[in-house]
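Lab notebook page, bench 4
Experiment: in silico fold of construct C2
Operator: M.H.
Input chain length: 485 residues
Purpose: comparison with the prior construct
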Amino acid sequence: MSSTLIHNALILDGNGGEAKLGALRIEDDAIVSVGDLSPLDGEQTIDANGLVLTPGFIDTHSHHDDKGALRENLDALPMLTQGITTAVFGQDGDHQLPLADFLNDFDNNPPAVNITAYVGHNTLRDHVMGDDANRPATTTEIEAMQALLLSELESGALGLSTGLEYVPGIYSHRDEVISLAATTAEQGGRYISHVRSEDRFLWDAMEEIIDIGRKTGIPVQISHIKLAAKSLWNQAPELLEKLNAARAEGIDVTADVYPYEYWASTMWVLLPDRNADDLEEIAFVLDQLTPASGIIFTKYEPNPEYINLSVTEIAKIRGTSEVQTFSDLLKESEAWSKANDGAEAEMIMGRSMTEDDIETFLQWEHSNVCSDGGFYGHPRGHGTFPRVLARYVRDRQVLSLETAVAAMTSRAADHMGFTDRGRIAPGMKADLVLFDPKGIQDHAGIRDGQVLSTGIHSVWVNGQRVLKDGESTQVFAGRVLRRAG
């Protein structure tokens, strides 16, 4: 028979209801029944031994595809050991162009997890405007971007993503983004955004994404919502009040969040004017946005020995002030990049958030958990989902297990427009996670980010077991998920 019975499991259906001890039957790639079930003749049976069985976790903001990493690691262990069964790519305004080729490649050579993607605004800008993209677009250029966007959406992309704090999106006017969002809305797509500012201009950035939702009617999601400046700390309730008011107005605004005080990006993102010689501005950054001791390099091509060192530590080595060191490191990385055909020269992690705000965002009923992580760099790529379950559910008791699982499953599915995943019910796809709530734990740290989590016992993707006893089964059951229509 092609059916499997998982019995003696503490089942959480993903909707936020209480766990129930019972069984679940899978036929082919779908769940066919849930409850008090007995084995059928010849059926494969799996004793869950009282562990928790939930829908597979959906990572709504993932970079596990960066630089072909998932293609080279089809077993997706850093994802499966977190319980992730679906990853959403094309984030922060960047996607693989043409998207159809990227998705078709995974159709032909699938990984162990499901994947899907957005179309990136910055990619559209780069393609249409070329080397002259660091300025507002003309009407003709916006129309060319709309045409390319339509072509890319035909591949089944979920919608449009923006990275408005990054080059070249930072140079776009709001009208340009609204025009592209409106085109996306006409095709039934969605909008997800690394907003224009997560620190000093945060309130304007929130107004912008709300306005995009208001004027286009498109569902809008704030990527990795955060308050990344001292002056904003502990204002999460005020921000959520603003978002709830927008929802009351009829704007479908949601957010995802990761459970770390550190973000990851480039040094340049801290300087809106991109001026490495503005020492006054750099001094403000180190005082108000992220301290020099909290800026840790995960990549620095001009001198790889600086990896895992902070700006404070590098300043001591060099014998220069922290402000001057920051400036010099920027200019040296820029020179290296220019000498190497524009290759990425540096990446940092910056400590800018507070635990209280993270907890408040996790508790919002319209937020879901995301990693914003990849195979390399920030520990969130290896530890996000277990960290929520270990730190915020078990240890700090900020969230109930039921609520946390809903934020990883049904909410995430709703925010991405998935109708057949994210819940345990007959007819839903059999993406499932079996884990020990007492033993689940993340192990990746700020200076040792590539350590696998533990406590995830088994994972099923489309009805096939891809992780067993925490080990890959070398079954690659993932699928490319495309927007209907």
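Observations: The two ends are 34 Å apart (CA to CA). The chain has a mean pLDDT of 97.
Next step: discuss at group meeting.
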